Amino acid sequence: MSALARRTGSVNLGQGFPDWNPPEPLLAAASHAISHGDHQYPPVRGLPELRRAVSADLALRCGIEVDPETEVVITAGATEGLTAAILALVGEGDEVVFPEPFYDAYPAAVTMAGGVPVTVPLTGPDYVLDEAGLAAAVSPRTRMILLNTPNNPTGRVLTRPELDAVARTAAAHDLIVLVDEVYEHLVYDGREHLSPAAVPGMRSRTLTVGSAAKTFSATGWKVGWVSGPAELVGAVARVKQYLSFATQGPLQTAVVAGLNLPASYFADLRGAMERRRDLLCAGLTAAGFAVTRPEGGYFVLADASGLGVTDAADYADWLARHGKVVAIPGGTYFTDARSGAHLLRFAFCKTDEALRTAVARLSGLRDIADAYRAPASRGRTP
């Protein structure tokens, strides 16, 4: 979608990366590490100082105590952490249950491990995880429940009742719970991010995946981590060794500086992102989309059916050419693309200027909706 944005001169609200630099203390720490000879392999499990910083952050935010020596491993981004955990713990024919819509790496990683993806379809616009639906998806072959909170693409933040339901299901069937929490600091409207590992009875069966990418606006740095029981983290580390072997040392040093930033940094980031969310949601609503404001994360999953959209992939291409705004078709996040054929995902992790430009362009969509429905206007971009 970024290539499409460049080719069409569109505002890129497709790929979820910020348009600004990481905080200056992180840049200074990375530069210092590079200029002072930090160029060789770091430990496979990650720099001890970063593992200690991750452990301290989990204790402060979530009340989760983990041993930085045995219960934290640093990975080349959260996606490697998730994939390494699945490859380590899921065998041939094992089922992995996760809510749908989902981040598209999940079924790929499960299939790569020889496992079987099993989804729990959630209904928009609320996308509430129902205990009965979750229990119905579990079978004797189920090995793992995979969660994402705050969620990509829906923006849902799982509540305590939903997490209690996961805990009961996991305990009843002796399941591992793998949790993707990369948007943990980006929770809005006064909500609290609740970590499943902090729910009573869940600590011993939960792996938590975090990342520097979203919290510090450094998606290209690819520094993430996995924490949890020593036995499970050790299995992840053994697989990670044969994926990337080690994660870039100077950037690990920089992330230590990030995790030690004052609380005001994280509060200011939430406030700025909440303002950007509201700007984009208002623009989408004015343009004729049905929008539920996301509770966290980077994205708005907008319903375009009111604009006559029944093929989101076709509409996303048309939108880039005629509206000069790029979004991702919602079918990407469903097992059957037809389930998301009326949905588009827009990113609001962009500068105010970029969002205002996009909103201005979207404001004309109602006037050209009839043009979209005209077959002659809908040839795909070469």
Quick gist of this model?
This protein has 382 residues and is α/β, with parallel strands linked by helices.
Explain the overall architecture.
Helix 7 links the parallel strand 5 (142-148) and strand 6 (176-180). This protein has a 7-stranded mixed beta sheet, sandwiched between helices. Strands 9-12-11 form a 3-stranded antiparallel beta sheet, covered by helices on one side. It is globular, with a radius of gyration of 21 Å. The longest helix has 24 residues, at 263-286. Helix 4 (77-89) packs across helix 8 (230-240). It has helices at 2-8, 24-35, 48-62, 77-89, 105-112, 131-137, 160-173, 230-240, 249-259, 263-286, 312-323, 352-362, 365-373; strands spanning 11-12, 72-75, 95-100, 116-121, 142-148, 176-180, 206-211, 224-227, 299-303, 325-326, 328-329, 343-347. It is α/β, with parallel strands linked by helices. The protein is built from 13 helices and 12 strands. The mean pLDDT is 95. Helices cover 40% and strands 14% of the residues. It has 2 domains: 2-21 and 264-370, Aspartate Aminotransferase, domain 1, CATH 3.90.1150; 24-259, 3-Layer(aba) Sandwich (Aspartate Aminotransferase, domain 2). This is Aminotransferase class I/II-fold pyridoxal phosphate-dependent enzyme. Keywords: Aminotransferase, Pyridoxal phosphate, Transferase. It comes from Streptantibioticus silvisoli. GO terms for molecular function: transaminase activity. InterPro entries: Aminotransferase_I/II_large (IPR004839), Kynurenine-oxoglutarate_AT (IPR051326), PyrdxlP-dep_Trfase (IPR015424), PyrdxlP-dep_Trfase_major (IPR015421), PyrdxlP-dep_Trfase_small (IPR015422).
